[in-house]
Amino acid sequence: MLKLDTETIINIPTIKKAYLNNNIVYKKYIKLDYIEATGTQYIDTGVTLGINRGVECEIAYDEFSNTSRWGASYGGTADTPRRFAFGTQDTAYYFICGGSTLSLGTVDNNKHTIKAFINNGTLTYSIDSITQTTSVTATACNLSFFLFARHTNQGVQHYVKCKIYSCKLYDNETLVRDFIPVLDSDNNVCLYDKISDKFFYNKGTGDFIAGPKKLDYIESTGTQYIKTGVYVDSNVDVELSCQITAKGTQHLFGVGTNGKRYLLAQQSSNNRIIFDYNTSNVRIISTIVGYTSGSHILKVINKEFFIDNVSYGVSSGATYTNPTEARIFGSDNGNGHMKLYYCKIYNNDILVRDFIPVLDTNNIACLYDRISETFFYNQGTGDFLYE
After folding, report:
1. What global pTM score does this model have?
2. Under a CB-based contact definition with an 8 Å cutoff, are residues 225 and 379 in contact?
3. Cα torsion angle, 282, 284, 289, 293, sign
4. Residues 378 and 252 in one domain
5. Tell me, what's the pLDDT at 112?
6. Which of 150, 153, 156 is closest to 96 using CA atoms?
7. In 3D, which of 33, 40, 34 has the Cα closest to residue 148?
8. Do 173 and 280 reside in the same domain of the chain?
9. Residue 239 sits in which domain range?
10. pLDDT confidence of residue 75
């Protein structure tokens, strides 16, 4: 059964009773991975931000333009301290914050986390892990903050073609908007704010494009697996958030063939989570008993094995050639019982797979890769459970 957060029973007593008698839960919204604007849509957040203000937005630009801007900005020189807007400029990400205009990083079509916080005249701004600080002159905004376009004293301008995955707005260090992309109960694509418990809809023309329906996890029961299309060797790193759901041998990720192993698993003897590289003779055994300990984040970085950021050592396994395609929920030598919350795969430090659990357009539970924008389906038998 699909369960989604912020589910409620409608607060009309007769309807509420009917829903309860028929064991029906009213779904307030369905989470999406993102909503996408094509250059004519925008959302008014209804927030005018003070002197100390901040934004944190997960965004991917579909098109780069020196007029692609979103936020709140002004045309007159005297009004520049009020500005708080973002976009792209030439080949860089662009920050228009108070009296300063700043560039950072190199633009591409991938998802990035953009942050900008003004606090007592100091601006801290970042793209992912790249962070800068500078002094700025800032005064309170008097225009509401827009997403997907720029709110100016001439009205709405500078539409942006982009995807937004989440967005948080802060006023004087208080979180005042916490947006996630959703379908409302009438299947309208919009943003839902967790703070005000309200939907925010397109104020422009046309329609937002809906991203995949996002799930908390998909769960294998020992017969399902997914091929990743990535052939794993010493150049490959992985990060997955998962929960093992059964005792004994459980293959979670990778390749199980001896001599070409790259395997995250739970071993049979003591149910501890392990990492094998090349052969099982150089196995790294953690102290974590998998199936009784809840969810964990497993990582392999340069053959070093981590669970929840605690290192359990570096594999001494020798580098091998002719690697094999990795699987999730199993390997070429066995499957596993596991809930998967996400999985990221890197090759030579480049993110090549960014998997999240979703329902596709036919409501089939699968993994969606944000990098290739492709659905990856069960290659085993039976169906994934999901929530």
Report:
1. 0.84
2. yes
3. negative
4. yes
5. 94
6. 150
7. 40
8. no
9. 218-386
10. 57
Nearest by Cα to 3 from 34, 25, 22, 20: 25
The answer on 104 and 228 residing in a single domain is no
The two structure tokens encoding residue 34: 């993102």
Three state DSSP letters for 289-338? ECCCCCEEEEEEECCEEEECCEEEEECCCCCCCCCEEEEECEECCEECEE
Distance CA(253)–CA(169), nearest Å, equals 37
Asked whether the CA dihedral 40, 45, 48, 49 is positive or negative, the reply is negative
Here the tokens at position 208 are 């937002």
Strand partners, 311: 306
Of the candidates 332, 345, 370, the residue with the CA atom closest to the CA atom of residue 235 = 345
Q: CB–CB of 84/140 below 8 Å?
A: no
Contact by Cβ (8 Å): 181, 358:
no
> What's the pLDDT score for residue 17?
41
The bridge status of strand 84-89 relative to strand 69-72 is antiparallel
**Angle, CA 166 vertex, CA 368 and CA 297 arms, to 5°:** 55
Q: DSSP assignment, residue 17?
A: H
Same structural domain, 233 and 258: yes
Phi, psi of 20 (to 5 degrees): -65, -40
Judge contact between 364 and 215, C-beta under 8 A.
Answer: no
Question: What distances in angstroms separate CA 107 from CA 19, 62, 92, 101, 148, one per listed residue?
Answer: 49, 10, 5, 16, 17
Structure tokens at 346: 């890197």
Grouped pLDDT means (10 residues each) for the chain, 387 residues: 35 39 56 96 95 94 83 68 85 84 88 93 92 90 91 87 96 96 95 96 96 96 97 94 96 93 94 92 92 94 97 92 93 96 96 96 95 96 96
Bridge partners, 114 (sequence order): 57, 127
pLDDT of residue 1: 33
